[in-house]
């Protein structure tokens, strides 16, 4: 596990988590728009 941490610095992991969180929030927002439009 130590080589994985050496290859990927902490800043990259934080950025990856932020991008995943923002992507999920955006996807949830689009899904809610479609659900609201269907009704």
Automatic annotation (TrEMBL):
Write the record's keywords in alphabetical order, separated by commas.
Membrane, Transmembrane, Transmembrane helix
Residue ranges annotated as transmembrane are: 12-34
| Annotated Pfam families | DUF6126
Q: What is this protein called?
A: Small hydrophobic protein
Organism for this UniProt entry: Streptomyces phyllanthi
